[in-house]
């Protein structure tokens, strides 16, 4: 995969589109809830609308915090990020009544791009279990060169066909859109970290590795 496989402006635009896509639903729900509060007279309906606003605001905040690290600059070049902080934002982004996160990484500082890589691996893992399930994170090695294994187990877990070639950069960035840019970006992060990212099926679980 060459560094010129996608123009910098195109990469920035597609990643911004991806973030906007993630935020449209909760922000739209907040707007709808506020409209109901303004127009409705029924107290039960107002209580329902207020609950919707609170939940949607929490979801939007969790998504923003996650995207800030996964896609944003997140500090200066060469910065390190606490894996404990990464765990907290990952739980806020991924966990709900259907999906649980098992985090078995040590509490330590890790290079920024490796944490960004891990968070993007978690996004892919979440997409492989649309009905929910369990996502597990395990270390490979230790220190600044620590790699990761992310396993996703759930009903009908499967690897989206487009993801493996996007991780390896096959196609040189052709046909990318706001949905396909994320696994492609994950591959770029892996390359920047000097590791290889792969995704395979292991029995009924999806396993994503970076080492």
Provide structural commentary.
The chain has 211 residues and is α+β, with helices and mostly antiparallel strands. It is 51% helix and 18% strand. It has six helices and seven strands; from the N terminus they run ααβαββαββααββ. The strands form two sheets. Strands 2-4-5-7-6 form a five-stranded mixed beta sheet. The model has no long low-confidence stretch (mean pLDDT 91).
Short synopsis of the structure:
This protein has 211 residues and is α+β, with helices and mostly antiparallel strands. It contains six helices and seven strands. It has one domain: Heat Shock Protein 90, CATH 3.30.565.
Query: What ranges have pLDDT less than 50 throughout 5 or more consecutive residues?
Result: none
The total beta strand count reads 7
Shape type:
globular
What would you call the structural class? alpha+beta
N- to C-terminal distance: 18 Å
Features of this protein?
single chain, 211 residues, alpha+beta, Heat Shock Protein 90, five-stranded mixed beta sheet, 6 helices, 7 strands, 18% strand
Secondary-structure blueprint of this entry?
Layout: H1 8-39, H2 43-70, E1 80-82, H3 83-94, E2 99-103, E3 109-111, H4 112-127, E4 133-140, E5 147-153, H5 163-168, H6 181-193, E6 197-202, E7 205-210
Parallel strand pairs: 2-4
Antiparallel strand pairs: 1-3, 4-5, 5-7, 6-7
Helix pairs in contact: 1-2, 2-3, 3-4, 4-6
